[in-house]
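Lecture 7 notes: from sequence to structure.

We start with a single chain of 596 residues. Read the sequence below before looking at the structure.
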Amino acid sequence: MGSSLLVALGLNEVLSIINNFMLLLGGIAAFIVGMNMMGNNLEKAAGRHMRRLMAKATKNRFIGVGTGAAVTALVTSSSATTVMIVGFVNVGLMTLTQAVSVIMGANIGTTITALITAVSTTGGALEITSIFAALAFVGVLMNMLGKRDIIKYIGLILAGLGLIFIGMETMSASMGGLLSEKIISGGQAIDNPIASAVKEMFAAIGGNSNGNLTWQIPILFLLGAALTGLVQSSAAVTAIVMSLAASGAVDLPFAMFVILGTNVGTCITALLSSLGTNVNARRTAFVHFSFNLIGGIIFIIPLSFPVVSGGIAFALQSMIPGVIAIQIAVFHMFFNIVTTLILLPFQKFLVKLAMFVVREKKGVRTAEGEEDETLDYRMLKTPAIAIGQARKQIVKMGKLAFENYKLSLEMLLSGDLSQIDYFNQREKHINEYNHYISSYLVKLSLEPLSQTDEKKLSSFYHVTSDLERIGDYAENIVEYAQTAVKDKITFSEHAVDEIRQMDLHLTELYKNVEMTFEKIDLSYMRKIDEEEQATDDMCTTMQESHLRRLNENRCTPEAGAIFLQLALNMERIGDHMKNISNSVKDYAHRQPSVHK
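Now the structure, written as tokens:
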């Protein structure tokens, strides 16, 4: 019947249907682009604050839930938040256990988008879509005319928010045109073949079921998951379901099962982002998947009984009469809140399940016996996280460089060269780190960065260079050790004491520099200045002491030559450490204070 009606339509009616379909596609595109624009620029404008908020959230699981919900409500995407969490776990900013509660909160926060979508369809004397469309224009002007980055980011946030509403309005209008029961053809109202075909399809699987769904349940669940996985956005699929429900193509019980499926489908983005990351990051993505899958099963079982699904639908229709879009949004929120309340006490169980399913590969270890965490190139699109990843790897490179210095000094003082192969292995690893991190920083520099992130990136190049130089000085000390062993050169007791004292100052300097760089905390700067000055003074003392011992014939010229070179090399190591701490001043937001 539908095909015969389609033949009966005139050219104008066919073009009208095609136009509505293209507008539907355009509405979906505007909706997704708006969400990405808003989320990305929120991350740029407040990425540093969100990272700090995430770090604080790890102290308490209830705060973690609230933080996950708040951040996701801001970026309008649980997938974006979960990808961020996967990145945090991958670079060691979060443990797997700490990430679970934040993921639960992210699922609650994503329901805010559904509520925004629902509100945008309700209309009114002055429709909310019109207001946000105007704000989108204001946002574009702010981005074009703004001088500061923060103004440009806020402008793009407003533009993205406006596109969300414009996209939803376009989807709703085009869906209404496609699914209207009657269209005008030749001056007469005739049945709409598209609406008839869509309604027949949904009727075949229980579109207007009044809660009487049985075999259709797994189909609807899988449909929601598949569509969400395809478009990478549960919010977009939810918006489509709302439009279908508003047009009468589906009823509330039908929509509820599709919504349950979208919560599983949204995990696809996080699962994809975890490919190539470390084992705990992959487990984090699996926790997200298992949380939504278990929650879906918990709901599907009771909702399979018509009396339950019909009862919930009746309750929603009674509380929010006549607005099915808001009814769907409230059910979406209800599902995620209840699932979180049920599974939050089983946080450790979810972690154990993830550890059981995502097994740790044996043999993937570094020279230090730790799992090798690598830079995730997919995080380049989220510069704030990528910067955090690079910082984490630079800290590891710094540990290797300083440990090699300590090992080289011990070989010199003890005359034991048995660890020289291990030293060379780590020196090679330091050079590989330098090339690897530098390559990552070059790629990151091609991404749009905030002014602060640009300063961090610039400083990182210098920091890796300073660390490599520390490694080079350690190599020099090993050469001195080899010469001393070969020529049977030893130091006097006083010379050894001076070397040990210089080493104590360098060790204390390194600890404070590491904390300053890793935590971006300038409160250690006073201690750093004191210790760096102490290394300069100690170098002078060592030179003067050497000359005195040489004049008193208590030191050989051969031992003295090595001693003087060692003092200079150790003093230069201190200079490079000071350079690293000074680099933090370029972008740190806190002023230096006394750190005891």
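Residues 383-584 form a domain with the Methane Monooxygenase Hydroxylase; Chain G, domain 1 fold (CATH 1.20.58.220). Keep this in mind for problem set 3.
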